[in-house]
């Protein structure tokens, strides 16, 4: 069966310089591309201050984004503060049968996590991991090991597996560090990593979609006038078949 998959760091529903709430535009952009699975990072679960300050801003962004096309969603808090929290969200057109949040924070300043979801897609189990990793390479190295252990614990080698999100991989060292069997979708198709940051002039390959037991036949950075305005990251989109 075929699956269309997107990944985007939505910057808490603001444009690149934090001057405009863009959550409605993000929702429209996702719906226009109509993926089966969506991996989102920096999604607000609650922010009482911004809800009062911005007319378009809303708490529980994941419910607003999911409403309509995606009947299933999972939200995992990564960063929790007084009166506000944000984290990773996975949206799915297929049933999410299992979900778990794994804390992979390595310091007090960067609260990071993995959102694991097992999805039942037309009778086939698909393992998905939605990640947001550290800014520093030393922190990310520890997180690569943590992800690898979670994959082993869940026996994800036995299933179609998708790991997507904001890897903050400035040095391009993530590939092969988690599991040699995982393939970067964009690099598989285009022989180079996808440049996704900053959205208005992408220079850095921070965002990734890795797959295993999944045949990728399309991988694109969605770069247009709309995508450059809705976040500080550009989104990735891939299409493929479950092996």
Question: Summarize this, please?
Answer:
With 243 residues, the chain is of the alpha+beta class.
Content-based structural category? alpha+beta
Strand order of the largest sheet: 3-4-2-1-12-11
Number of helices: 6
Strand content: 35-45%
Rg calculated over all Cα atoms: 16 Å
Q: CATH H-level name... which superfamily?
A: Endonuclease/exonuclease/phosphatase
Oligomeric form: single chain
Mean pLDDT: 91
Number of strands: 12
Molecular shape = globular
Which architecture does the CATH hierarchy give at level 2?
4-Layer Sandwich
Q: What's the SSE pattern?
A: EHEHHEEEEEHEEHEEHE
**Helical content, roughly?**
10-25%
CATH topology: Deoxyribonuclease I, Chain A
pLDDT under 50 segments (min length 5)? none
The number of domains is 1
CATH class membership: Alpha Beta
User: What is the CA-CA span between the terminal residues?
Assistant: 8 Å
Biggest sheet record: 6 strands, mixed
Structure description:
- This protein has a single domain (2-242), classed as Endonuclease/exonuclease/phosphatase (Deoxyribonuclease I, Chain A, 4-Layer Sandwich), CATH 3.60.10.10.
- The chain contains 6 helices and 12 strands.
- The chain has 243 residues and is α+β, with helices and mostly antiparallel strands.
């Amino acid at each position: 069966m075929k699956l269309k998959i997107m990944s985007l760091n939505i910057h808490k529903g603001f444009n690149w310089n934090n001057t405009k709430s863009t959550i409605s535009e993000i929702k429209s952009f996702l719906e226009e591309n109509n993926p089966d699975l969506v991996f989102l990072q920096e999604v607000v679960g609650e922010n009482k201050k911004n809800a009062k300050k911005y007319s378009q801003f809303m708490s529980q962004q994941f419910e607003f984004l999911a409403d309509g096309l995606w009947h299933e969603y999972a939200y995992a808090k990564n960063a929790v503060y007084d009166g506000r929290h944000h984290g990773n969200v996975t949206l799915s057109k297929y049933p999410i049968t299992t979900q778990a949040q794994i804390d992979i924070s390595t310091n007090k300043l960067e609260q990071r996590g993995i959102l694991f979801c097992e999805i039942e897609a037309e009778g086939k189990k698909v393992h998905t991991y939605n990640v947001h990793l550290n800014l520093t390479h030393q922190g990310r190295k520890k997180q690569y090991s943590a992800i690898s252990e979670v994959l082993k614990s869940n026996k994800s080698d036995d299933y179609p597996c998708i790991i997507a999100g904001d890897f903050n991989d400035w040095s391009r060292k993530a590939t092969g560090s988690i599991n040699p069997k995982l393939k970067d979708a964009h690099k598989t198709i285009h022989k180079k990593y996808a440049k996704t940051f900053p959205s208005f002039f992408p220079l850095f390959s921070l965002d990734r979609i890795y797959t295993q037991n999944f045949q990728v036949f399309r991988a694109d950075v969605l770069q247009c006038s709309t995508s450059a305005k809705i976040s500080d990251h550009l989104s990735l989109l891939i299409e493929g078949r479950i092996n």
